[in-house]
């Protein structure tokens, strides 16, 4: 299968590219720089220079491929409206190319949309439209099934970890621990996050391309729930710092922008995904990766 991967040189995308190439798929990887192109080429894939705002590059990649894995996102926390706009236009463009072909379209999404309870694959996102988080693109992509696109939502856990450390939420918590001299959790630390190792995530993406039915919501979740106080304790042990409970009213000052997310209880099930895809996560868990020192780098 020839697969067009956006974000192919990124944290998740590079693992997905490696996984697909290792299983004898051809990969066209969307990249934004010559340096990223070299990394993708070294992985055995064909780089395509472009980006989310270069709609022609998205069209060229999708037109050449048997399947599309859309992982790229601007992740501009200072301007989420722009990230959402770019994401929506990109998905509109990709689904227009794929319409009527029944080719597979696997779209990165998330599980953090129903705080306070275990979210399952049967739960539809409660929002849609261009002003919704991520531009409402999960609903947009799944609606495209009616237009002949074999769409699958890839709902990634909020932390995708691994050797080298992720570049997302957990490093921000580590950075806050360094600044404050203590690894913090909010309130009683009972808020739960799901997690997945990037190599397990890559395997799930590959299996979703071959085994997921159209309209499926895959939960790319290795661990369904890890208490934030346990994550903070692991960070504290890794850095040689104490742990501290932070009052919710002080979360923004202590953690920065990540404090708004660190307080959210957002566990997610993976049972249906494991059964449907025949997927069994085998790589280290989040607390093991923290203990191994993968988050000791500066964020």
Automatic annotation (TrEMBL):
<dbReference type="GO" id="GO:0004029">
    <property type="term" value="F:aldehyde dehydrogenase (NAD+) activity"/>
</dbReference>
<dbReference type="GO" id="GO:0005737">
    <property type="term" value="C:cytoplasm"/>
</dbReference>
<dbReference type="Pfam" id="PF01370">
    <property type="entry name" value="Epimerase"/>
</dbReference>
<dbReference type="InterPro" id="IPR051783">
    <property type="entry name" value="NAD(P)-dependent_oxidoreduct"/>
</dbReference>
<protein>
    <submittedName>
        <fullName>SDR family oxidoreductase</fullName>
    </submittedName>
</protein>
<feature type="domain" description="NAD-dependent epimerase/dehydratase">
    <location>
        <begin position="3"/>
        <end position="213"/>
    </location>
</feature>
<dbReference type="InterPro" id="IPR001509">
    <property type="entry name" value="Epimerase_deHydtase"/>
</dbReference>
<dbReference type="InterPro" id="IPR036291">
    <property type="entry name" value="NAD(P)-bd_dom_sf"/>
</dbReference>
